[in-house]
# Entry
Amino acid sequence: MADFGATELDVFRTEVRDWMEANAPASVRGIGNALGPGSQLPDTNDMEAWRIALADKGWTAPTWPKEYG
# Structure
């Protein structure tokens, strides 16, 4: 694992938060990995836009072996 100094880690966290704020559609925010009873699924178009934004950023792993999730 990379050894980020506190300053570098803080900068990285800020960059991630800013990017997510600018790119995550409102309907996908806060849903996590699992939806509980009574939860509403995000808009399909928003989910597709979010998937594309994550892929364009390089934050997806479509070729990971199944045993790694």
